[in-house]
Design brief:
Helices cover about 70% and strands about 0% of the residues. By secondary structure, the chain is mainly α. Helix 5 runs antiparallel to helix 9. The termini are far apart.
Length: about 210
């Protein structure tokens, strides 16, 4: 895996080139899958003429994949950050659900989740990638859990509520719902499962 300090040693031009390669690879791997994306495809999409430039930043395709996982994890969390950072009320949970559903409709229910797509393709065949993907899911789960923790601290959820278990259930429901959305080309299953988990959380609400 590329050293975590490598990007800090790059010149601004080098950093921009590396970022462009990662962004192009992430886009292509989301559209075509990892196996369907060759390094030559990435170079062309990134506007990089020489393979030596790619291998200057990444020792091989596996290192590029690691960078793509990090990029997609941050990208997904950044897109959801405004809602995830205040996911501490039932109104906020419903707004997050609505935003997720609206995003899928805007994309014609195509593509699924960038992290989920990588996970389905890589987890059984690349141990290092699986660890990084699991860590990305953990960051997402913790963001959801933090909001539920605040609800319990304020007394809006009862002491019997387990924010960690509920956050894991909600994230798992989201991932399964996105797979169904991709296959069915509608958001019915996604809405149903998110509603079911939000209703489960409501069962712990204090009156």
């Amino acid at each position: 895996m590329t050293s975590s300090t490598a990007p800090q040693r790059l010149t601004p031009k080098g950093r921009a080139t590396r970022d462009r390669i990662v962004e192009a690879a992430a886009r292509l791997m989301f559209e075509r899958g990892v196996a369907g994306t060759g390094t030559s495809d990435v170079l062309k999409a990134a506007g990089v003429s020489s393979p030596s430039q790619l291998y200057h930043y990444f020792g091989d395709k596996r290192e590029l994949i690691q960078a793509v996982i990090a990029y997609q994890t941050q990208h997904v969390l950044d897109l959801q950050r405004p809602l995830l950072s205040r996911l501490d009320s039932f109104e906020a949970l419903e707004a997050w659900r609505d935003a997720v559903v609206a995003d899928q409709r805007a994309r014609n229910c195509e593509g699924g989740c960038p992290i989920g797509s990588l996970s389905m393709e890589l987890s059984d065949h690349d141990a290092e990638a699986r660890v990084e993907l699991a860590a990305g899911y953990q960051r997402w789960e913790e963001a959801i859990r933090d909001g539920l923790d605040r609800m319990r601290t304020r007394g809006e959820l009862g002491a019997d509520a387990d924010p960690s278990a509920l956050a894991l259930a909600l994230l798992t429901a989201l991932q399964g719902g996105l797979v169904m959305t991709q296959a069915r080309r509608d958001t019915v299953a996604l809405e149903a499962v998110l509603n079911a988990i939000i209703d489960l959380i409501r069962c712990h609400a204090r009156s």
